[in-house]
Fold each of these.
Amino acid sequence: MPELPEVETARRGLAPKMEGRTFNHVQLRRKNLRFPFPKNFIRRLQGVTLDRLSRRAKFLVGELSSGETLLMHLGMSGKFSFEDAASPAKHDHVVFTMSGKDKPVIIYNDPRRFGFMELLAPGDVGRMAKLGPEPLSNGFSGPVLRTALAAKKSPIKTALLDQHIVAGLGNIYVCEALFLAGISPLRRADNVSPDMCEQLCAQIKKTLQLAIKAGGSSLKDFAAADGALGYFQHQFQVYDKEGAPCPKPKCPGSIIRTKQSGRSSFYCPDCQI
Ligand SMILES: [Zn+2]
């Protein structure tokens, strides 16, 4: 599933082909993804310029010259690619042809169709309204995290996946950051000390930045917009490493897997307390 670094990688791939360009042609190859496309989706995009493509959590946010916002989410298996000529493949659901000399053709492909596209009225933030702080922003810090966790009796792993506490974190990066911070995923959220919160916050930022630098993780369904595969998965310390020796020097432990809220947690019971 695309996580924050993958979405940021997609954004960086798409921005040069979309920003400051007009939607010359929009083609929908079906009526819905996870949700139906907005009413008059094609008419509301064609002839409109995408001024800026930004990211909030796992949403791609396109500011349009019409005043509306194009909100795009990759769901479980969504990805963008570029084609020289429109030659639709299976699961290609949306085709944007942008203006410019090169007339880029941008294809949205999504086999499982958990992704979606929406148009928001000026000033409306839609599904982004209840998101917690952006993990890479200054608004996310040790004290902010500590405050958000203070009333949470759930395990820290579960709390970090709660988008109200911090936005855009998924299973992989939470497992990795908890390992690097030396905190057990089973520890109760309200029992994570201020010092631990500092450490955890720093490791979350570091893990995400490394992954973005590496171009996201290319787990099964993800490819960056330009088709290049990320390689962050080769740097995983614990994720999907059940049975492997703990990578921390001098730690005698090995990585175990457990289920929390239906998701696998990977951690070292010897050095994550
Ligand atoms: Zn260990």
Note: Residues 158 and 261 are 7 Å apart (CA to CA).
Amino acid sequence: MAMNTPLTKLLGCDYPIIQTAMGWVADARLVAATSNAGGLGFLAGAVMSPEEVEESVLAIKAATDKPFGVNFHMYVNGASDIVDICCKHGVKAVSYSRSPRAALVEKLKAAGIVCIPTVGAAKHAVKAVSLGADAVVVQGGEGGGHTGSVASTILLPQVLDSVDVPVVACGGFKDGRGLAAALAMGASGIAMGTRFLMTQESPVPTNTKECYVGASPDQIVVSKKLDGLPQRMIFNACLKDLEATSQLGMWWLAVKNGLAFANMTQTSLLDMLKSAWKISRTGDISMAQTMMAANAPMMIQEAMVRGHPTQGILPSGQVAGVIKDLPDVATLIHAIVTEAQQSAQHLQQIMQEQ
Ligand SMILES: Cc1cc2nc3c(=O)[nH]c(=O)nc-3n(C[C@H](O)[C@H](O)[C@H](O)COP(=O)(O)O)c2cc1C
């Protein structure tokens, strides 16, 4: 059974369920599996060169004829190449977060691509909509990776009251009860990262996935150590070492990771410095924070790609603490939709009884 919300209409998918982009995790296979199951998957383009984004887009198109999206950073040099790739291959939607660029949003919209940024505060939702966003994903503090401090239950109604585009609830969702609750609050759907990381199709090595299954909610903490911005992750040996590292040590790490990131995304170090300077002038984040931005992707890669969960960072939503299985994506989405329908019926019964 399909579900109809403003989000499914906008994205052309069967269910109002988004698989968010996660660096090193949301690859072509996971995205295609999500879209084939009736949700909408976003490719993690922020840790790819434009060439890799194009290869992955073609791989997704070979695996599904359903709509899907691409996530990328608008402040990096390759951003306009990625926009061109999305336009050329008819990608349905794009997502982005920090420092959106009005010219790129305009170009995407002119090509009919849905722009759906992730925000962590009501004022950012208002700004994103003023720059042309067609919908917003609102991530509460429970969410994985870079995150805010306000819980989804507080933030969602605040954003719903602030903007007049479809709003997608994100941060802490994993099941049909959550989907029904978000819809009841007025959201047009849910977006989930961690729940999709913990699936069969997710490319994360088994030993790293086991750390997620074994984590308890109180082990999933927020730290600013990596790049000065709050990030939610599983507390492990690597984070313990980082917390004890001096500021000088963190700068050395930033230089090492910056060089590796520049090499990976085919950007020169000079261009990275120029982008950092430009972003810091927008006032969104400081120059120091931007310079440290490469720490997160490079240290996440250690755990997510190389399979060394104690030597790398494990970004995670708090919800991993209550997820104990690794289903395939089709089974997961089917279970979420079925449970949401049961929850809605239950709610309807209660209302009638009153
Ligand atoms: C391992 C991991 C990597 C992530 N990488 C990115 C990323 O590259 N770009 C991005 O916009 N968000 C990233 N995020 C945030 C997610 O897209 C999503 O907003 C968040 O996981 C939602 O919260 P949840 O985990 O409670 O569902 C990442 C999250 C995780 C857990």
Note: The pocket of flavin mononucleotide is lined by residues 20-23, 25, 44, 46, 71, 97, 118, 139, 142-145, 170-173, 192-195, 197, 315-317, 319 (CB under 6 Å).
